[in-house]
Amino acid sequence: MGRMIHIWGEDAEDFRPERWLINGTFQPESPFKFVAFHAGPRICLGKDFAYRQMKILSIALLRFFRFKLANETNEVTYRTMFTLHIDGDLPLCAVSRKAA
């Protein structure tokens, strides 16, 4: 559902974080549009905890490392499935920010 054109528009498969920004302010979408955690009375009890864990881990990784493609000439492609899957490998290099 996260890439359905009739829900998100013609650019549904493009990574565009700005689609949730209006004048630089985050505007959340309906939780019923993306049902990974469901919505309403049957919402996942661990949703807030999962989001918090994701943010903490992301901050820690981005604080200490820079990430780049191992081979910058390779094109990254995706497979359309229930969750987002990268088609093939995505070799990355993590470079310590302290070394740079």
From TrEMBL:
GO biological process, one term: lipid metabolic process
Keyword Iron: yes
Cofactor(s), by name: heme
UniProt similarity note: Belongs to the cytochrome P450 family.
Tree of life domain: Eukaryota
Annotated GO MF terms: heme binding; iron ion binding; monooxygenase activity; oxidoreductase activity, acting on paired donors, with incorporation or reduction of molecular oxygen
Gene3D superfamilies to which the protein is assigned, alphabetical: Cytochrome P450
Protein source organism: Trema orientale
Protein name as catalogued: Cytochrome P
Pfam (any one): p450
Xref: InterPro entries: Cyt_P450 (IPR001128), Cyt_P450_CS (IPR017972), Cyt_P450_sf (IPR036396)
Keywords for this protein: Heme, Iron, Metal-binding, Monooxygenase, Oxidoreductase
Keyword Nucleotidyltransferase: no
